[in-house]
Amino acid sequence: MKVLGSELWKELKEKRSREGMEHHLREYEAGNCAGLGILGPKMIPGGGPPVPLRAVFLSLDPNLLYRQRMFSLAQDILTEDFLINEQLNPILTQVLSDIVSGKSLYEFSVGELFELYGELVNHLPDDEKKKQLNKWINGKGFKEKFANTLRGRSFTAPYYSYSKNGYSAQPKPVPIPFAIRNALAHQEARNPNVALLERLPHGVHDSVAILKAIKSEYFGGN
Predict the structure, then answer these.
(1) Which residues of 28-44 are buried (b: 16+ CB within 10 A; e: fewer)?
(2) Confidence of residue 131 (pLDDT cuts 50, 70, 90)
(3) 35, 59, 143 from 65: Cα distances, Å
(4) Are 209 and 202 in contact (CB under 8 A)?
(5) What is the DSSP letter of 132?
(6) What is the pLDDT of residue 163?
(7) For residue 150, what are the CA distances in angstroms to 34, 96, 107, 143?
(8) DSSP letter at 61?
(9) Is 56 helix (H, G, I), strand (E, B) or coil?
(10) pTM exceeding the 0.85 threshold for the entire prediction
(11) Mean pLDDT confidence for 28-34
(12) Distance (Å, whole) CA 146 – CA 41
């Protein structure tokens, strides 16, 4: 790590500011209003597993030049991750896309969903996870108290259960955090639950809202 003196740091910031503004003006004069990139690895093998992609919106402002550089670096990270693991972690893709676009990394994010889920029920077997979440959600007055924190209309989502015989033919309602968390963690092409991520665009938000409410109601946490 290189430590710069205050004057050198100031010069570096001023240089970046000039370059960023010049790039911004060139893009503006060329008639461009914003940047949009599809974030994913730069290369994948033919016939390989599905790869989670995310659209990244880059505002037309003096930081555009540096966000474009960050976008390329994020592609490099995803490429190396894919080469190492032969699959992509959807959480990594979202985190990198949020960093590049300047969004908040934490509140109502996939990372927060996994952290809360792990804290509350990850120590339980899968069937017990569902039972415990249902017990909390169906507790007296819980739904009435916290329904207005949800963007959707339900505390449950249709979910295809999995056994050694494969996925069930018909979905059954399970707590949204259980359905969304597992759909995010197992994005195989044959997993019918992955479709929930598109059908319930509010799924991550509502999952986090429910888990936060459980923590607050039953454990006195924030």
Answers:
(1) eeeeeeebebebbbeeb
(2) very high
(3) 10, 10, 46
(4) no
(5) H
(6) 86
(7) 31, 26, 14, 10
(8) S
(9) strand
(10) no
(11) 81
(12) 39
Confidence of residue 104 (pLDDT cuts 50, 70, 90): low
pLDDT tens, 157-177?
999 998 888 899 999 999 999
Length in residues, the chain: 222
41-48 contacts, C-beta under 8 A, 24 or more apart? 41/75, 41/78, 41/79, 41/81, 41/82, 41/88, 42/75, 42/76, 42/78, 42/79, 43/79, 44/82, 48/86
Cα 104 to Cα 97: distance, rounded to the nearest angstrom:
11
**Is residue 148 packed enough to be buried (19+ CB in 10 Å), middle (13-18) or exposed (0-12)?**
exposed
Q: How far apart are CA 124 and CA 96, in angstroms?
A: 30
Alpha carbon 151 to its chain centroid, in Å, reads 17
